[in-house]
Structure prediction request, 392 residues.
Amino acid sequence: MKYDFTTKIDRSNTGAFKYDFMPEPLRGSGIVPMTVADMEFSAPPEVNEAVAQAAYHGCYGYTGADRAYLDAIKLWQRTRHDWEIEDDWYVVTNGVVQALGIAVRAFTEPEDSVLIMTPVYHPFYGAVEDNGRKLVTSALTEKDARYEIDFDDLEAKAADPRVKLLLLCSPHNPIGRVWSADELKRISDICIKNGVVVVSDEIHNDLIMPGYAHTTFAKIEGAADNCIVCTAISKTFNLAGLSCSNIFVPNEELRKRFSKEASVSGCGCVPYIARFATIAAYTKGAEWLDELISVVDGNFRLVYDFIASRLPEFNVTKAEGTYLAWIDMRSLGLGHEELNAFMAEKAMIADNDGEMFGIAGDGFRRWNLALPRKELEAALIRLEKAVKEFKK
Ligand SMILES: Cc1ncc(COP(=O)(O)O)c(C=O)c1O
Prediction:
């Protein structure tokens, strides 16, 4: 490996949510958390160098998407996703969650409804409900630890004339599906037929495990005119704290509405440091990303093998993308609070409670596997020991 994915990095006293806001009894314990979706790895050194140079320059003024910036994001989408972007499709926001809220306000009225597929990344709920819109959910169906879209249900829900928008998570957090081009085509056709605009949150689009392929929603035949595609450097290169996302809206009318609401929400600048980080990441970060994917894939394999051989009472969803593992622990028979306490106090594991992502997540845990393998091994061994003691 050219890059370092093994050193344990002390992130305490940096304000990191994962560390400095970790609940007791784990805070300060030295245990590496597997909660919030950022990574326990340094960003690519090429990015760190560009950020340091930008800092030394010293003028942290208002900054926009200049030629070098647009060229870098276009190059990345072309080479990594085989997607040609036009300059004027681009809108900056200071995060994808912010873009979801902007889209809800831009494309719906207060009496309208917004469709999501559950379980899903928890801010999808807030983007709808906290903006005063009605939430309509279509539950993903689970079979043999794999999730699928219930297309009959999705179609029935999309046919409700009050439903104006679909928030699509592609790849899907927390269940790790990388939707196939066929599935995306079916979603697109249903939405076009029913006048439902699609917001495709593709923040995990670069984190695709070997053997799978991500398709940008706008590349699906007929979809470009009916969608907003949300991308970012944040998940791919561990740069979430730079608060910068690249949103693409190919259709002019939709873009006007989205841009207006983005402007009202105070968007317009590319954060100064993010400009330099983005250019470095998208022009020099491909090799680092390839190594990262092999490390995350290895971590998934460790979890699958360990659980299959030593904790067979649990099931792990086979992740096709993201660095998030979705683990079914319902067989422990613990109530919601009891399972939380068991993980924190007995297994000494800081992970996410599956119920955060919707009621169907009760009894599940989400583990963030972007951490050094040794730390993951230690967590699995602690879990095994806690389960053995629990069963005594
Ligand atoms: C699906 C999804 N969308 C958006 C975000 C967060 O995006 P941002 O930090 O750009 O607001 C996350 C973070 O975990 C995510 O998983």
